[in-house]
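Exercise 3.2. Students should predict the tertiary structure of the chain below and write it as structure tokens, then compare their answer with the key that follows.

Predict this chain's 3D structure.
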Amino acid sequence: MSGYDASVLNSADTRLLVVTPNWLGDGIMAMPALQVLRQHLNPEAVLDVLARPGQAGLWRFHQAPGEVLALSSRTRELFTESRDIKQRAYTHCILIPNSFRSALLPSLAGIPHRRGTTSQWRRILIRDAVDLQAEEQMHQQWENARLLLPDVPADLPPPRLTPPVAARAKAQEWIQNLPRPLLAAIPGAARGPSKQWPADRFAQVAQLWQEETKGSVLWLGTPSDEALCRSLAEKGGPDARSLAGKSSLGEFTALLETVDTVVANDSGGMHLATAVDTPVVAVFGKTDPRKTGPLHPDAVVVKASAEGDRRIARTDAEAVQALESVSVEMVSEPVLAIASRHG
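Answer key:
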């Protein structure tokens, strides 16, 4: 993608396709730079995104894309999809994922200028190679800024999502009889035990919230968290409710927008809360908040271990131990402090 500079952004003829990350949290950490890109792009230029089916809905809540194209997970549809994309006549493509497949589709579609990181297997598919070595010790949002922007600014805005009107109405319906303030507790994590603080400690924080604030607790998560969240909600009485597995992504987003505080693991739910401007207390074990921490000015990260690792196995014993070293008091204190600040 030689020549990716201000002239590309200024041209009304630019037709730009951004291939987005495959995980919810990674997608949200790409949004600050994409918001800046949209702001500086010629109003007549095209900015679309290509996302996995499970992530496409997320991008429809974001202000930057014109169209959101859903990428099939089936390899046999790759050539059909490439023909469809070719008809859209994109002039430029920016690839945030580092996978071979994410680079193959724009290449097959004949997009002439393709920008992204290179590896041994996809070097021939990238026209404008980006070296992210300088950003290795920085938050992941700066890696995305380096990929998406010709000139990286000194500051980036926080990510912002707008839930659909119908989702907001459904969220209000679910919480209408619950006393405020509202705490959303998200005990799950897609990465498994290596990112999950013990569930009984989430329950203790929720109990302290109810005792101290006289408010309510919403237990939120994916369908895989449904049984866990239901059992935790049952311990909290009538002012605790589990909606895990019951809400769509839009409704989940709207619920997080509605509550007063969120307590979560290092997870997609944590990042989703930041994108609707809700303060979050995030529990980290072995993962590194300097790389993947929540992008919200009022966010609090609780971490007992000084170690930080970007990639860990699902059942990493050291990560589990690091999470177990985080006490209930370490989490409940900032949760209740946020409640007191916001009345």
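Discussion points: The chain has two domains: 6-148, 165-341. Residues 1 and 113 are 4 Å apart (CA to CA).
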